[in-house]
Amino acid sequence: MQRNNSAKVDHAKDLVEYIALSLVDDPSSVQVSQERNGGRVRLELHVAKEDMGRIIGKNGRVANSIRTLLRVTSARDGRQVTLDVMEPEA
């Protein structure tokens, strides 16, 4: 069964949101937005300032692990998806 491209992007977005929600103390602040540019999709993850350390991890290990999972799942879907963890606004 083949899904359309929108469902594939939503799958990646849902994955990032699920992982972030399980890591943070303030789940209400988790927001994932997306930008599409041809065959590429850019996801932006926004969390509370207090939760940035949990998402990034020591030396960026948690964030890089999330990116690796995204790369694997998006490759299956035939897409290239990137993740940016955004700095919280003051």
Please, could you describe this protein's structure?
The chain starts with a helix and ends in a 5-residue tail after the last strand. Strand 1 and strand 2 form a beta hairpin. Helix 1 runs antiparallel to helix 3. The protein has a single domain, classed as GMP Synthetase, Chain A, domain 3 (2-Layer Sandwich), CATH 3.30.300. The chain has a three-stranded mixed β-sheet with strand order 1-2-3. With 90 residues, it is an alpha+beta fold.
Task: Give the topology string: H per helix, E per strand.
Answer: HEEHHE
Number of continuous helical runs: 3
Beta content comes to 15-25%
Overall morphology: globular
Core attributes:
3 strands; three-stranded mixed β-sheet; alpha+beta; 90 residues; single chain; GMP Synthetase, Chain A, domain 3
Layout of helices and strands, plus pairs?
Elements lengths: L4 H19 L7 E7 L2 E7 L5 H5 L4 H16 L3 E6 L5
Parallel strand pairs: 2-3
Antiparallel strand pairs: 1-2
